[in-house]
Amino acid sequence: MKCQHRIGIAVLLLGLGAVVASAQDNSSAPPGAGPIFRMGVGPSFFRNSQLTQFGGPVSSPVEYQTGVALDTAVGWAFNQYLALDFNTGFIDAEIDNVPGYTSHNTRLYNVPFLADVTFSYPIPHTGFIPYAGAGLGGADVIFDTDSFRQNSTLNAVFGAESDVVFAGQAFAGVRFQISRTISLDLGYKFFATENPTFSYPASPNFDVGLHGARTHSVLFSLLWRF
Asked: pTM of the entire structure?
């Protein structure tokens, strides 16, 4: 299953690369067209989740502390209104509480790799540019713990394991253009993944399963046009 996910995601991203390469060959580009780069950071709020496997089927709610999102993207603007980009970064948070379990420094990291499409509408004579968009691809989800133990059985896992799953996002916000090439950006992003399973070494493997992440992030970003 992980191999199929990786192949599907790779095909999606190669398709994005082909579109961008084709756009770069166009010498008669309209106003606003060209390469773009974006970087942003801000708080991320994880929706409460569910622990579904811990060496076998279980069902326990999972609460997270406020996390951090780091967002980067590189792509191509076709004009002032439409852009495609490849988006990555990380969204992580520490697990705050799981009833019936003892957790020491347990974090969930999501490393997305997504193809995004963004629609923008520059408001004439203001410098403000509202935008909205969505992305699809995958995420490398990492469960990293110093110790995560089930109190009733004393079963425990240590260290980091990961799973590659499908992921998607939707986002919106507003930019303010401070120069011809640089804009400040305040945006909101909703990010979601498929349910990951983390296989820890044992005999047989000891699986830890969670419901997929659902996160709400507020991002403060800079966007460069080249």
From this structure: 0.86
